[in-house]
Amino acid sequence: MSYAKQMLDTYPRSFNLDAGVLAAAIEALSDCAQACTACADDCLSEEQVQDLIKCIRLNLDCADVCAATIRVVSRQTEYDANVTRPLLEACIAACRSCGYECSSHAEMHEHCRICAEACRRCEQACQELLSETR
Predict the structure, then answer these.
(1) pLDDT tens digit string along 17-49?
(2) pTM > 0.90: yes or no
(3) What domain count does the chain have?
(4) Looking at per-residue confidence, does 77 or 74 come out higher?
(5) Torsion angle in degrees (nearest 10) through CA of 13, 18, 24, 28
(6) 55: region left, alpha or beta (phi > 0 left; psi from -120 to 50 alpha)
(7) Is residue 66 scored above 80 in pLDDT?
């Protein structure tokens, strides 16, 4: 069982989200932030780094958006969907853009293939969580 799920299980109040969906999103956000950070670093080590500038930028943007999103969705006390929903929407957009860009380099760079996969998983998990938010 993940730490996210364990922490949600200890929450002393009830909340309006499916704990499994929320835990899956938190895990996907964490994995995506890490994969994007590592992919940006790997891109910087490539010989043709000039060809990867957009990828690096999107990696860093996606990692930052995921990190902010994970912090907000992890807090359930006095939850406000007016804050959470737009942040999830931004995360979905960042993951979609980064995943698309990384997939365009995936045949040449394994780190981009892995990152694209993490972005797609995070995009889907955030979409599922977004559909749960009220």
Answers:
(1) 888 999 999 999 999 999 999 999 999 999 999
(2) yes
(3) 1
(4) 74
(5) -90
(6) alpha
(7) yes
**Which residues, at least 6 apart from 39, have a Cβ–Cβ distance to it below 8 Å?**
55, 59, 102, 111, 112, 114, 115
CATH of residue 33's domain is 1.20.1270.360
Q: Phi first, then psi: what are they for 48, rounded to 5°?
A: -95, 50
Domain span including residue 16: 3-132
Q: Please, which contacts does 70-75 make with residues 24 or more away whose CB atoms are closer than 8 Å? A: 70/26, 70/29, 70/30, 70/33, 73/22, 73/25, 73/26, 73/29, 73/129, 74/4, 74/7, 74/26
CA distance linking residue 134 with residue 127, whole number of Å: 13
Residue with tokens 């500038």: 53
